[in-house]
Amino acid sequence: MPIPPPLPPDLPSRRAALRAAGTGALLLGASGVLAGCRSAVSADEKASAGPRRGGSLTIAINQDVTPALLFTQSGESLHNRLIYNTLTRYDDQLKPRPELATSWQYAADGKSITLKLRDDVTYHDGRAFTADDVIFAVRNLLKPERSAQLASTAKTVTGFEKRGDHELVLKLAHPVSNLFDLFEFMIITDRHTVDQAVKGTKLNGTGPFKFVKWSPGAGLSLTRNDKYWLPDRPYLDKVELRVYTQPDALLSALRSGQAQLSYQVPGKQLATLKGNSAFDIKEYDTGSGAVYVGASVTTAPANNKDFRQAVAWAVDRDRIVSQALGGYGLPSAAPWPKSSPAYSEANRTHYTHDPATARELLKSSGFSTRQTVPLGHPTTPLHVAIAEIVQYDLKQIGIRTELEPSDPAAFQKKLISGTMPTLWINSHSFSQVHPATLAVSAYPFNQARNTSHFSSPEYTEAVQAAWRRKDADGAGANALYQKVSDLLLDEAFIIDLAVLDSVQVAASKLHGPDLTPFSYLNLDHAYLD
To answer: Which one, 57, 243, 272, 409, has least CB within 10 Å?
Structure first.
């Protein structure tokens, strides 16, 4: 297929099509945090002096990096694109653009794709990047210990044909609609040091910054890659990701200038930064994921669909957006942002706040109001706030819950292993890319094996039909996405509450940070005044 030209270095992305959020800005990612910037006019004024080389950027994060989850997309994936590159990157319309792959050609039957690779790229240790590194990257995702959500898509690659060091044919078992989601997700790590990478002792990539040190509990230190393949980039000399587990400490770090960027300011505290000219607040409307209530369908009372639907009708989504998200989000019973081909207003409003309907369904489920239901959640501020709202709303219809908090890393392991309590609160990603990826990759939705232990032949058939096609767009694809949505809404094993708007808190002297659809931070063109 014809390949579009590369994006100019400073072309605004789809994520830069922001709605004005006041004088400060925040970005809310899958981890439940906010980021932002000022209006386009003030941003243009600010950038008029042009980029300058040098400076150290400190990013405030609310949970530490977990090297063992390097190949798992989560709220801890922010640093991936700083150290590593991917094969392609999406533009504003989710069309793939070159990164380590310069061009590609699909076979007519959709069962193979030929990639041409950059021949001027080296790893941080000086080794040349070749086709063997791509082969390793695909195979690496298939290892169970990697817990990679896109392993199902990687598994469709059944063979490789090398044509020298910089051309590679991937042979596929069948066409897949989300192959470029894989290419965007799959970081190209060094095959010789991957075991050290997952221990946090050596992260050797091709990206704009080199690994210096991971200090458990404190954060990650990076320095400029002087031999980066993108000419004259990056501008920054150093990047520090520093952990502030308490929201007040994180806000204090931003206000004092100790940190200049964060994607993890709780929505409830966003108002305290509005009107502060020291910050740019910027909101992205493409969705960075969604927050939801999960249900373990093999455990009573969540094994009853009427009970699950009662929960779906009980929760006040508008309140969650206004109070927990600071207004940065979209109340939605479905996982899709407005930018998704699977979005519809009917899906978004399928469940609204209706306690009367919820009580009727609860009664028909046979639920005893004398019992207490466990409600798990991560200890990040966003999820704590949502858990408290959900707990209150469920109490109003007769469901008593007991909160079960877990630190984010332990919670992620429970999610992957499928050992959640009866109900739980979390965020999911993968709804902001091609719709089939959600149901074959995200742990809560995976049709083959999901956290809720839900399965049905109808769901599997619908997901497979949406996934096993070369064309991810058009009326035929959209009809298949709607069938998946219908099943998700009816079965309610995942009860979506709100689509998260991506929002960014940045010091006004910082220009050019960006996030990929998988919430990898891109600082290729970022600089400080």
So the answer is: 272
